[in-house]
Amino acid sequence: MGEMVDEKYYFIGYKDGAAGSDAVHATEENAMIFMAKDNAVPGMLRSYREECIRLCCTPEHINRVDGLIERVERYRDKHRELCKVPD
């Protein structure tokens, strides 16, 4: 096992490679998890979106980030009692 990027969570995630993109196998060695309940996440996602624009990411990627921001906001609205300062 190589050095872990995310030392807090152990996980396996997959992206299926649909629509011509490469399939991806994500683990704590090459990815990280941020919880929607963490109060720092909405601002982090907005900053990420702005950085993606600065880097000239594709409109499709920006749209996916916009969708992620919307889903996180809906989750947080429904589960206010779970939202907290990250630990």
DSSP, total strands: 2
Distance between the termini: 26 Å
Largest sheet geometry: 2 strands, antiparallel
Roughly what fraction of the amino acids lie in strands?
5-15%
Tally of individual domains: 2
The percent of residues in helical segments reads 25-40%
Tally of contiguous helical segments: 2
Order of helices and strands: EEHH
Which runs of at least 5 residues are low in confidence (pLDDT < 50)?
none
Structural class by sheet pairing and helices: mainly alpha
**Strand ordering within the main sheet:** 1-2
The outline comes out as globular
The whole-number mean of residue pLDDT values reads 91
Radius of gyration: 15 Å
Q: Helix and strand layout, with pairings?
A:
Blueprint: E1 12-15, E2 24-27, H1 41-54, H2 59-78
Antiparallel strand pairs: 1-2
